[in-house]
Write a structure and sequence with these properties.
With 337 residues, the chain is mostly helical. Helix content is 64%, strand content 0%. Helix 3 packs across helix 5 and helix 8 crosses helix 10. The longest helix is centred in the N-terminal third of the chain and has 27 residues.
Length: 337
């Protein structure tokens, strides 16, 4: 951990806060988070060591005006994390997360897939009909679905993406039945509560493509256009690419830059046009902009795949912040406006 007064990464701040407020309150907070956030926070909590009261004070000062002297950091962190996750998620979901965080799993139904590694999800659904696969991927987070889709053969990827884009929701009873099928895959006997039938569609397909490797993304979009030019264009119109950051206002860019690593920013700008570089430079301090310019000039050749990956990671942060209402993304459909 850094010394008091220096920059503490946001995930560590969140971990310290959860370890400080007690199991009951921490579990209530975690109930409102998704699988990735829970795993990321749980990993950070498990990795904290030698946290001083001064460091706790630095974090808590951002959340409240006055801070008591007592913290929950003196308890055994493994037991604490296990209890918090079980209270927040229930025994089934928490089992898989605890294994991945503390040991290295099982829950039920469609929600269970959200807590599984992409390769494990692909293995579970690989023999299902493409329409079933498309519904399952539509139910997952876009970045998670992109990783799963990338594991399928080219022909299957195209078929599934076309089906995702063509989905116009699904009857709750059908989704409930699918949930029970997935549940039986894990030898479960309890039924998950499936509330929403709004899955799939052009926007979902675009979000999944946005999160795929650059080469796979371009190849798959081209094949979609070959199969259905109109649908392919609709998908492309709904995709959010790095250049769309030009349409984000200055305050939004400044907010984004606080969440982006300097290394990712450096790589992402290597292939960016001058307008994008100027947009970034003007939203940094004069000294920081000068240092970034110098770093760009000094940086040797880098692989295009590394640049694309850095840009995608920045876009992932931007989309997450947009979903949280922290900035407005333009040029990519209603979801980001």
């Amino acid at each position: 951990m850094p010394d008091p007064g220096t920059h503490i990464p946001n995930v560590d701040r969140a971990a310290i806060l959860l370890l400080t407020i007690g199991e009951q309150f921490a579990s209530e907070v975690l109930k409102h988070m998704g699988p990735k956030e829970v795993q990321k926070l749980g990993t950070a909590m498990a990795g904290l060591a030698n946290v001083s009261k001064d460091q706790v004070g630095v974090v808590l000062a951002d959340f409240c005006d006055t801070v008591g002297n007592q913290t929950a950091l003196g308890v055994g962190s493994e037991d604490y994390i296990r209890n918090v996750l079980v209270k927040a998620l229930g025994e089934d979901k928490a089992g898989g997360v605890i294994d991945r965080i503390l040991i290295g799993g099982s829950s039920k139904g469609l929600d269970a897939l959200k807590w599984m590694e992409p390769r494990a999800v692909a293995e579970v659904i690989r023999l299902e009909h493409p329409q079933i696969i498309s519904i399952v991927l539509s139910y997952l987070d876009s970045d998670h679905a992109a990783e799963v889709l990338a594991l399928f053969p080219d022909k299957v990827r195209l078929d599934v993406l076309l089906r995702i884009a063509s989905l116009d929701g699904i009857q709750p009873s059908a989704l409930h039945e699918l949930d029970e099928i997935m549940e039986r895959q894990f030898s479960g006997n309890n039924t998950s509560n499936v509330k929403s039938s709004s899955v799939g569609g052009v926007k979902t397909a675009a979000n999944i493509l946005n999160n795929m490797d650059g080469t796979l993304e371009a190849d798959l979009l081209a094949k979609v256009k070959e199969t259905d030019a109109d649908l392919g264009q609709k998908i492309q119109d709904n995709m959010f690419v790095f250049e769309n950051l030009l349409e984000v206002d200055d305050r939004g860019i400044q907010t984004l830059l606080r969440e982006v690593s300097s290394e990712n920013l450096l790589l992402a700008l290597k292939a960016a046009d001058q307008a994008m570089k100027d947009k970034i430079f003007k939203n940094m301090s004069k000294r920081a902009a000068e240092m970034l310019r110098d770093d760009l000039e000094a940086k040797g050749p880098v692989k295009l795949s590394e640049v694309e990956q850095a840009q995608k990671e920045i876009l992932t942060v931007a989309r997450r912040m947009a979903d949280a209402g922290q900035l407005a993304l333009g040029g990519s459909g209603e979801e980001y406006v």
